[in-house]
């Protein structure tokens, strides 16, 4: 161990979070409709697989783009040698247009203020390196994306201080919560450098309101802080209220306030809106030229390959494709989210009202044995190992209330989602029966411990049997 760095041996990466552990369990026993129909269904991965047909059709119709060709002539050598860390101008222009289109062209983006990065992961970390020193803090509203512990803290040494939001007001960001987080950082002798929000929120699946955005801008102005808005899910808003980017509010209310404009930065990526996490395409957008210059130099450590940039510059500058894709993607996401919400409702489970994202924030507090994170872990283990659905618990998202779970709906087929809903329903019916049985036994005061366990055991056995029947019937239908 002594031969390795502390970074290599510390565990602040967050790999031991239930968020990543659930993925590991899924990898050991992944559901497949034919090869492994009793396996774990992955509902812990915010992937968007709903519009691959549109992308694939475009690729077929535009073979030059992926074939290293321009106007039928090979540009292989040009692409193979290109390594300018400023990025391909044609790609930055197309990306800026795509980002504007997603915002209904209410805002425009200057390609010269875009820094390309290997995904939003790299964009967020790059901003941390540009805006803060090791030991400084960023305030994040809870619940937040579990990956931020790795992306923001691990290599930079930055601290995250939670802004505690609560279900009592729909997890809205409030002034008292902001002030409390700020004070809590100060009590820990941490210098606060900024606030980071995801809009739309991961894991809430909701957009941030104009009122909250105004509050955030007033807060950073009063405390002289940065505001990072991670807008990686901006193209997934499928229902009103419409998405409002912080850039819109800046243009409306801070048009001539250069100082505040320089303190606001956007993170973007094509991992969610275009469903291309494997392509590793992300971006930092900043109004501060010094940040743009520093982030550009840092981007040497995580560039986007010229081949990918070229392909996407052709795809995203195709206005017809761009518009059709954005509209169709939103419609399909809406349908999927409805399927999940309705399916869970049939199982007596409610979702936080969402209008965006690739997931719902699901309320399973009534299924907890107690209002504690230990009970949440117990329920989570049951859902993963017995129900065989990988979902992300509240605790992994740093939520202060046990019993909420992030459940993804866009990384699987409709038939698989349907099966997942059946598994949920069978589980809830069984849990309720078990609870009723054990209450009845306790009230009769008959050798309660052994009877309780016995009832539970029988009940689980019955339930596993019922599920395998369900699975078999959906399996034959899936085929
Ligand atoms: C809010 C948020 N930011 C950043 C990321 C990382 O995205 P990328 O694949 O572009 O690195 C994710 C991925 O889930 C995310 O949800």
From TrEMBL:
Residues 41-423 form the Aminotransferase class I/classII large domain. InterPro entries: Aminotransferase_I/II_large, Ethylene_sulfur-biosynth, NHTrfase_class1_PyrdxlP-BS, PyrdxlP-dep_Trfase, PyrdxlP-dep_Trfase_major, PyrdxlP-dep_Trfase_small. The keyword S-adenosyl-L-methionine applies. It is an enzyme of class 4 (lyase). GO terms for molecular function: 1-aminocyclopropane-1-carboxylate synthase activity; pyridoxal phosphate binding; transaminase activity. SUPFAM superfamilies: PLP-dependent transferases. Its cofactor is pyridoxal 5'-phosphate. It catalyses: S-adenosyl-L-methionine = 1-aminocyclopropane-1-carboxylate + S-methyl-5'-thioadenosine + H(+). Keywords: Ethylene biosynthesis, Fruit ripening, Lyase, Pyridoxal phosphate, S-adenosyl-L-methionine. Pathway: Alkene biosynthesis; ethylene biosynthesis via S-adenosyl-L-methionine; ethylene from S-adenosyl-L-methionine: step 1/2. Transmembrane segments: none annotated. Signal peptide: none annotated. CDD domains: AAT_like. Its EC number is 4.4.1.14. GO terms for biological process: ethylene biosynthetic process; fruit ripening. Belongs to the class-I pyridoxal-phosphate-dependent aminotransferase family. Homodimer. This is 1-aminocyclopropane-1-carboxylate synthase. It comes from Cucurbita maxima. The lineage of its organism: Eukaryota, Viridiplantae, Streptophyta, Embryophyta, Tracheophyta.
